Amino acid sequence: MVSSLLTPSRRRFYIYKDLEEFVQKYVQPIVIPKLTVHFDQIWLMNIGHALFDGLYPAYLALIRFSPRHLQSFRILLSTSGYNGNDSFSREVYNRFAGLDTLNASILEEMSIGQWFAFEEFIMGSGDMCQRCLQPNLQLPGGIELNGSQLFRERMYKQHGLMSRTLRQKHSAVRRNSNRSLHAVIVDNKRFTSRDRVEMSAAIHEINTYRNTNTSWPAIHVSYISYSEASPINDDTPIIEPKFLDDNIKMKQHLKLLQNIDIHITGPGTGQMYQTFLADGSVNINLGGLHYIKRNATFDK
Asked: What's the CA gap between 223 and 148, in Å, rounded?
C-alpha cells in the first residue's frame, strides 16, 4: 500500500495554458529530469518487505504505463517507522531502478522557498503489496500483470546476470539430466536449536546415501544463511560463512537462487525470495511449529 508523508498545497488551473504560464513565469522550478516513482516504505531495514511491500508494488504501477517498466527511473522514497540499517535495501533500490534515490523528507525541506518540478512522475499502487492478501493467496499482479516474471527478470538484468531458462510447460524443459538437483535449506529465525540439529542430521543422511547408493549425484542438499551466502558448493553440506558487502550481497543471493531447484525455509520474510527462483523450482515452507510452541502465550 502506497501512502505519502508529503502534504502538498493545491492550486487549481482550468486550462493548461494557465498552468504553463504559472510554471514558466512565476515558479521557475528546478526540474528533476526523467521518470520518478514515489512510494512509502515502512520496514526498509528488512529486505523482504523492502522488495515486496515497497519496490514491487511501485514497479507494478510502471507496468500499467508500459513501456516505462523497461526504462531507468528514479525513486522518491518516503520512510516511516524504525528502519535501522537500511543500506542493503537502498543499494538494491538504486541498482534495480537504474537512477538515484531521493529522500522525500530532504526534498521537502529543500522545497521551502524553492519549487521543484518532475519531468514525469508516477505514484500509487493500491493494495498491490505482499502484505495485502489476495483471495487467491497469490502475489498481487503476479499473473494478471505478469508482475512476478517481469520483476524477476529486471532484478537479474540490473545485477548483470542472466535469468534462468523460462519453462512454460514443465520443469524438465532444457534441464541437464546429468546435473544434480540442488536442494537448499535457508536458515530462518523461527528454527530452534532442535530444528537445526534435526536438519543437519537429515542433510548428512541424504548426501551420504547419494554418494554411496546412487550411480550419479541425483540430489545435493545444503544449509545456508543469506547473511553469509555464497554460491553452492557440492562438497560442503553446510556452506562456510562469507559475510558480504551491501553492494554485492544481492548479486550473490541471485547467483545462489538461480541454481536452486528445491528451496526450503520457514515462514515469514524468508519466503519472499521465492519469486527469484527459476521456473520449475519447488518451494517448501517448513513452518515454525517449535518456534510457535516455545513463544506462544495463552489467555486463561
From this structure: 26
Residue 10 within a domain = no
- What is the rounded CA–CA span in Å between residue 116 and residue 74? 15
Q: What is the pLDDT of residues 181-208, one digit of tens each?
A: 899 999 988 888 888 899 999 999 999 9
pLDDT digits (tens, 9 = 90+) for 1-14: 445 566 667 889 99
Q: What nine digits make up the cell of 21?
A: 504560464
Q: Is the residue at 21 inside a domain?
A: yes
* pTM of the predicted model as reported, rounded to 2 decimal places: 0.81
Q: Among 117, 143, 158, where does a domain finish?
A: 158
209 shares a domain with 149: no
Whole-angstrom Cα Rg for the chain: 23
Distances (CA, A) of 156 to 52, 200, 243, 257, 276: 16, 31, 21, 11, 8
